Input
Amino acid sequence: MSRTPPSRPLLPSEPTTGPHIGMIWAQARNGVIGAAGTMPWHVPEDMARFRNLTHGSPVIMGRKTWDSLPERFRPLPGRTNIVITRDDATSRELAEESAVPASSLEEAVELAKARAESAHRVWIMGGGAIYAEAVEKEIAGLASVTRFDLEVDGDTYAPVLEPQQWELAAAEPASGWSISESGIGYRFETYQRI
Output
């Protein structure tokens, strides 16, 4: 195991027309991505990768994910923040906070594409139900996953990327784990829909 700094993101070649839809999350070995509205770990290298990949691109999230962001970071800077909610009062509040409300994942994707400008990708960033819907409806063609070498208790889980539908396109490191400055083993993986 070696301690390595975060590096350039591993992504397949960028699309030549319009933005493509990707999903991004971090998960423990047991598939946990969240616990009580928080991430049950602290891995600065994962946060740096998230910022690097999503900066300049629209991001789509559910209302609970939006609520889980510390207020000082809402909306996430350098990104159009699109939040899925079916509540009219919440939609008005989101607009006041400079986020773009959407009533469904499909509407959020259309809004994101319209606001992508020069971005090559739109990122779905949670939560669990939004990821599951994106996988089930085949909305996303790429998944950027940070895997952690630990198991934690939680209440929100990553979607299952079935091997007959998704293939591992890149991994860093290719085997084993990098070690975070917080002491947690991690690995960056990129999956493409087959």
Q: What stands out?
A: Confidence is low (pLDDT under 50) at residues 1-10, 12-16. The radius of gyration is 16 Å. Residues 20-193 form a domain with the Dihydrofolate Reductase, subunit A fold (CATH 3.40.430.10).
